[in-house]
User: Fold this.
Amino acid sequence: MNTFFCSDHAREVGEDIISSAANYETYILVECPQPWTYDAFQSKWVPNNLKILVEEVRRAKLPVRFLLICNHYSHKVDYSTLLIYQKQESLSSGYQKYEFKLPHIEEVAAVVKKYLWGKIPEYEIETNTTRDILVCTHGSHDQCCARYGSPFYFQARETITDLGLDHVRIWKSSHFGGHRFAPTAIDLPDGRYYGVLNQESFKSILTRTGDIQSLRQVYRGWGILPTAVQILERELMLHHGWNWFNYKVAGKIIQQSLDNNTILAELSFEDTSDSVFIYQAKLIKDTTRTLEIKGSCNAKENSVFVKYAVDSISLVCEKVVTCTN
Assistant:
């Protein structure tokens, strides 16, 4: 019997979880009751037309992430919720949401196809929900997501109810990476990823209160940014505090050494007074924190997880009028 739990091991060796948020242009979230198989879109409730579409999008290598979601109502309702989150261009605070209530899951593929062709389909509805939080509970993909994700989901539901947050929905989700950081979550529409969560850190994330420094342990990064730039964003977030969550951001890698040991990253942000700041940072490979460990419970071999440290940060531009490109 396999008694290795990748999440336990990652905690034991003290892996820093930053820069592990995936970077996608589009999230397509399909409500579908459990159980889910290892490859979620091969599950029995997923219709054939949707399986084919997901495979076509994978083969085309489009920056689109399909996920199955469900909650404690999913098997009782007579419609299927489809959520599409689309990354906003340039300086942004995350993703734009399109929500559909479809008569049947069979209709999802046609609506998604239309959307991917650049047309907003019918059925779109307005909701008061301003946040959708996905918790990976995909135990058939990795046992840590069942062991830690499922209990966290149930406790998190109670936390949201206790706090009276009617505008927040929480969903069980299929695998979105980083199961060694279970319980792991994505907070949409901003697209930030979190891991090794407990109810205390989750409350801080929900209410954006408490000690911002506590996020250093649970923040995986902001999915709108390239992974290397996520460590620079964390430093600026910890410096600016919870106000940072109201800012619009864009980031890019300017330069990278051939051996990937040194990266020059740039992050621009617009604060609530519409002032724009551009920071550049030299990131260097941190050999003391780079690890060679198993990335999942079922991994046969170790993987190398390269970690970077912020060597220096400099403000290169302040306010739009002083910037020259």
Remarks:
- The first strand starts at residue 26 and ends at 31.
